[in-house]
Amino acid sequence: MANPRLLPDTCAWIDFFRGADSEPARFLEQALRGSATVCVCGPILYELVQGVRSEKEETAIINALEGLVALEVTDTLWIGAGRLSAQLKKQGITLPNSDILIAAVALENDLTILTRDRHFLRIPHLATMGIPPETAR
Hints:
The protein is α/β, with parallel strands linked by helices and about 140 residues long. Helix content is about 50%, strand content about 15%.
């Protein structure tokens, strides 16, 4: 059986870099050790870099992502993301544009999104992992 192909969302990377004890951070650490193929795309890189606190932190993040499979957001993917957003809006669902793009990359490349963001569950046919079960209020 081939290794799974993962697209860690920004929150998974943030948890990982901060050493958080979250399911996405643990899955990501295992994946980086070879249990899965880890991919990255422009929207995730953008979100990570725009949130850095220092040049040192930015360099560390860029270096950590350098050896991963980098997926381009092509014109076809932009169109697919627009269609996905329109489909969701017809159902009354509005998600952040960056997450629509990330989902479109995952769908186009048959990837599983590693995240703790529940709104990814609202996207049809999108494979996710790491989302904690809802807790009772």
